Amino acid sequence: MASLSGISSRTPLALFFFFFFFFLCCCFASTTSAQLSSSFYNTSCPNALPIIQSAVKAAVAKERRMGASLLRLHFHDCFVQGCDGSVLLDDTSGFTGEKTAGPNNNSLRGFDVVDAIKSKLESDCKQVVSCADILAVAARDSVVALGGPSWTVQLGRRDSTTASFSSANSDIPRPDFNLTDLISAFSDKGLTTTDMVALSGAHTIGQARCTSFRARIYNDTNIDSSLAASLQSSCPSSGDDDSLAPLDASTSTAFDSCYYRNLLSNKGLLHSDQQLHGGGSTDSQVSSYAANSAKFFRDFASAMVKMGSISPLTGSSGEIRTDCRKTN
Ligand code: HEM
Ligand SMILES: *[C@@H]1O[C@H](CO)[C@@H](O)[C@H](O)[C@H]1NC(C)=O
Ligand SMILES: *[C@@H]1O[C@H](CO)[C@@H](O)[C@H](O)[C@H]1NC(C)=O
Ligand SMILES: *[C@@H]1O[C@H](CO)[C@@H](O)[C@H](O)[C@H]1NC(C)=O
Ligand SMILES: *[C@@H]1O[C@H](CO)[C@@H](O)[C@H](O)[C@H]1NC(C)=O
């Protein structure tokens, strides 16, 4: 205060500069608080990343598909209200969350792994690490655990106090989508067609239910006939909705570029997968990833960072949940 009165009593110009820099600092502080940062937990919870990584490694060692399930949770989180942990909220008598929406019901998995990670983090650093950030880090660590690329995860997302059943139904792309639908679903989230094709490579791991690919194996003409026949033996034209098949028939527990090689020979499992190759505008990108997995890895990593930055809650928006399944 002494220096302020000293400045202001001397000259109005000095006063002007004082307030000019004062407001500049304010603006700077408020824009940076809205940004994610890779060092967000460096001082507030230095063990956060190692804790998440070792839990993901253990879960994937126990069941390799869990890596796929955790990666998909982050995608379904980010496409609905942004990456805010909304997908993790349980339904209650007075609240319907996203878990029973069409793309999620009887399909999403990995919630117990997220709970276990959250409880370890709560005992190490109480109410510091958000559930939304757990999903972002677990997605990266899952891809790495299955042999895929690594990337630096941006952090500082906070958790929503709301969820949206209707947005989960409208905003998450469906397996019956054509290429135009897919491009626009991603463009609605600020992601390019290139991002969409790269992110679809996530289907190099994991499984889908019969109900998700039945129409493709009975009605599509652009499917390899022996693949269709073999899938039909476990996925009847009606019934057995939950019987599973690998999204990548060749290597469903390895994160590699086989997904794209499959598309070159009409071996995509989902109708939407095969839309990326076979006469459309994305054919050349698929061929390029099929031939060059390093290029796929680079593009996938950068598209994951973009997807992970969809409308995060930062600063004082939202909260840090103590239990990922419910608001505080
Ligand atoms: C391009 C539009 C996409 C569509 C139409 C789509 C659709 C689907 C469907 C229908 C399933 C099977 C669900 C079931 O039958 O239970 C699935 C599984 C999966 N999706 Fe996608 N998806 C898309 C993009 C993505 C993206 C961007 C990611 C992640 C970056 C992703 C990751 C996964 C994973 C890893 C699985 C397997 C999950 C498991 O085994 O538990 N998908 N997807
Ligand atoms: C934050 O921690 C990570 C991992 O220990 C380190 O690589 C990075 O340099 C740190 N960043 C800052 C800004 O301290
Ligand atoms: C979710 O799946 C269960 C079990 O199949 C079913 O009973 C329920 O109606 C489904 N929920 C919604 C909202 O479709
Ligand atoms: C894609 O599907 C939408 C309906 O989801 C339809 O309106 C559109 O005509 C289709 N586009 C092409 C190119 O088939
Ligand atoms: C295949 O297409 C026909 C005609 O559109 C439809 O009636 C039938 O339900 C479809 N089959 C499957 C398994 O989707």
TrEMBL record:
Q: What is its EC number?
A: 1.11.1.7
Domain Plant heme peroxidase family profile per the UniProt entry, residue ranges:
35-328
* Pfam families linked: peroxidase
Disulfide bridge partners, by residue number: 45-125, 78-83, 131-324, 210-235
Q: Where is this site: Transition state stabilizer?
A: 72
Q: Which GO terms describe its molecular function?
A: heme binding; lactoperoxidase activity; metal ion binding; peroxidase activity
**Can you name this protein?**
Peroxidase
Function statement: Removal of H(2)O(2), oxidation of toxic reductants, biosynthesis and degradation of lignin, suberization, auxin catabolism, response to environmental stresses such as wounding, pathogen attack and oxidative stress.
Which GO BP terms sit in this record?
hydrogen peroxide catabolic process; response to oxidative stress
- Residues holding heme b: 203
Residues at the catalytic site: 76 (proton acceptor)
Q: Which domain of life is it from?
A: Eukaryota
The cofactor remark states: Binds 2 calcium ions per subunit.
**Binding of Ca(2+) 1, residues:** 77, 80, 82, 84, 86, 98
Question: What start and end residues bound the annotated signal peptide?
Answer: 1-29
Q: Which residues bind substrate?
A: 173
Q: Which cofactor does it need?
A: Ca(2+); heme b
